[in-house]
Amino acid sequence: MVQTATNLLSLADYLAIDDPDRRCEVENGVIRYMPPESELNRRIAVQLLIYFSQLGIAPERLTMKTEIIVTSDLVTARAPDFMILSEELAIALQGASSSIVTHDLPRPDLAVEIVSPGKENRDRDYRYKRSEYATCRIPEYWIVDPERGCVLVLEWVDGFYEVTEFSGEANIVSPRFGALDLRVDRVITAQS
């Protein structure tokens, strides 16, 4: 599907798309097909899912590739690499026909983006998604950057994200989940 200036997706159009295997995000009403995920990024996301599961977070709250609508006039929808849903959001999504967080639903507790190589990907994760997630009031957003060797933990405070950067052998500290036994060097290389 190709969109032109007169053929941009509205929120209703986007929600009506019936393709459960889609690998895309939507930016300002235009579908942006995503390349296949790198094996490293996939492993990092799985490692985080397993780690938080072992912390005792209920499986229905842990998700990969659940979409979130971040703007609605000309729809922008993002699919974080990993998310922890709030208990209220997990309940609200039970029985839903698609795993999409719309504006009328509770916010997830955590969204994680794993940066893929390339300037466009870096700009998207560091700049655009940061402001979009802040507008959505997602309380915590992580940027996992294997290329830079760091994890940025962003906490939503009064409409903006405050950033703490972790690197090397440092353990990640989460505003929502406390001090974690999760070393950055092992996260960015997907080692247990």
Report the order of strands and helices. Answer: HEEHEEEEHEEHEEEEEH
| Domains, number | 1
How many β-strand runs? 13
Helix content: 25-40%
- By DSSP (H or I, 4+ residues per run), the number of helices equals 5
Write out the CATH superfamily name: tt1808, chain A
| CATH topology category name | tt1808, chain A
Taking Cα atoms only, what radius of gyration do you get, to the nearest Å?
16 Å
Q: Main beta sheet, described?
A: 6 strands, mixed
CATH second-level architecture: Alpha-Beta Complex
Mean pLDDT: 87
Described by the principal axes of the CA atoms, the overall outline is globular
Oligomeric state of this protein: single chain
Highest-level CATH class? Alpha Beta
Provide an overview of this structure.
There is one protein chain. The chain has a single domain, classed as tt1808, chain A (Alpha-Beta Complex). The chain is built from 5 helices and 13 strands. The protein has helices at residues 11-16, 39-54, 87-93, 119-135, 184-187; strands at residues 24-27, 30-33, 62-63, 67-71, 76-78, 82-84, 100-101, 110-114, 140-145, 150-157, 160-167, 171-174, 178-183. A hairpin with a 3-residue loop joins strand 12 and strand 13 (178-183). The longest helix is centred in the middle third of the chain and has 17 residues, at 119-135. Mean pLDDT is 87; it is low at 1-5.
